[in-house]
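Progress note, project year one: complex with magnesium ion.
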Amino acid sequence: MTRLWNEPADFADEMIDGFVAANARSVRRVTGGVVRSTVVPEGQVAVVVGGGSGHYPAFGGLVGQGLAHGAAMGNLFASPSTQQVYAIAKTVDRGAGVFLSYGNYAGDVLNFDAAQDRLNAEGIRTQTVTVTDDVASASLAEKHKRRGIAGDLTVFRTAAAAAEAGYDLDEVTRVAALANERTRSFGVAFTGCTLPGAPAPLFTVPAGRMAIGLGIHGEPGIDETDIPTADGLAELLVDRLLAEIPDGVDVAGARVVPILNGLGALKYEEMFVVYRRIAQLLEAAGLVLVDPHVGEYCTSFDMAGTSLTLFWLDDELERLWETPVDAPAYRRGSVVPAAQADVVEVAAETDTEITPGDAASQGVAQTVRQALQVLVDTVDTHVDELGRIDAIAGDGDHGIGMQRGSHAALDAGIRAVDAGAGAQTALARAADAWSDRAGGTSGALWGVILRAVAARLGDAGRPDAAAVAAGVDAAVRGVQSYGKAEVGDKTMVDALVPFTTTLTDAVDGGATLVAAWTTAADAATRAAAATADLLPKMGRARTHGEHAVGTPDPGATSFALIVTALGELLADTSNDKDNS
Ligand code: ADP
Ligand code: MG
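Model obtained:
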């Protein structure tokens, strides 16, 4: 039960304000999250972590000397946006490149990857290691699909210590990947968590029972049993982790850091009782315990549960692990305090000046503005229906997410058009605003779609039908490359692919843009309706797949509605032109 909030929608924002007010010695708030308040020397690799809020001390509490340089902090249990990650990375970059690390969740991967591509395109070398320590979340053969939980700490700390020791970006990445490979966790929970203002927990565990292997956002577990004794729980956790020793480790005499992590509402005293037995069991197995941790390192709001992490050291990892840290929620050894820095915040791109387009492109920008208005109207009309179909197997936020995104896009588009932007700049600004404000997977993907189309419109002259078709084609490839969904996975890709192939074929066959768009929109509408028969394989809906059969995919549905309405706008504007 979460008891205290003002407006639930403001909770994450107000939480970050309070956290920074209480820790000004270590962190400053900037666009996108928090960064160290202390001086970082030029030429040091910048370590950027992040994720949704609600997991304190992950992620803001792990920013400080010896640990991360910055954290992108999303809304409650929601990935930070691409813009947030990008802004934090730009702020902390010291000319030696940026290292990104975060728990392996679809929304985070999408947004951090998009930020990484942007940073690399700007010449800021950026690399990533996603944390995949949770052994319950996928088999060893599919280790890359595993989620990240308390193992975040070992990977972040190793990377940060390496950066501080002067490793270059490739070396930081190498050692962080090694730390991730040698970090395995397994967890249990006794209760679910309740988000501020929510009427009920995200999930429940029956009284007297314990869910085994479930995720920190309520992702389903692999099993459920009666709650064991403290010693029984210790045995369960240790047995599971000793059944999976990382490659290259010789168990006899192996040095490991055990981390017993509380998920938010478990008492330290209970954890100490459990840890007592864990230590006995690990020592009996021939391990040497190094620097044990019992406490809260990655929580899930008020969830009562715990996880055990084993970090299997080698000489280099142990050397890096022993370096001092002074972060708001994590202190080890004694750190020589660095001077306070003047943080130079990177202005969000939306605040930078617009270079005007030529007259023809400013004309096209007016059409872009009308198109954004049509998008807003379409989403507003269907917001409840989109929420309803998302609630059947997803989290019910597709309507409001699309509404937040499209309204922010229209506002940004209008500001750009009023400042004289050409079509490309106007739509690119709209794209950034959309993905920054919408939240959710679809928000990030709509940002990708609009940015790809924008790139083909240019800021000079009028794009022809082939340029628009090429933009749509690039958009679909972008969505698939970030989201990794194929046709048939029951996502928006099921509507996007028939839309773009029909559009391209028609344009290649000599059709006008209006005629081509209309047939393509019809194809998207039929394909979106046909997703009702499919089982979801991607996104949040995947875990509740069977409920979704009979209901079309929300993202495919909204896409079809939008392109249909845009077809009507295109027909109207071309009629006007023919009549004038
Ligand atoms: P979230 O799933 O984060 O709550 P939304 O509810 O706004 O985001 O959007 C859900 C829609 O996003 C799904 O209906 C689906 O069309 C789309 N989606 C989810 N994951 C993917 C993916 N990997 N690739 C393409 N589309 C996806
Ligand atoms: Mg949703």
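Residues 390, 394-395, 397-398, 440, 540 surround magnesium ion (ligand 2) (CB under 6 Å).
The chain has a mean pLDDT of 93.
No further modelling is planned for this target in the current period.
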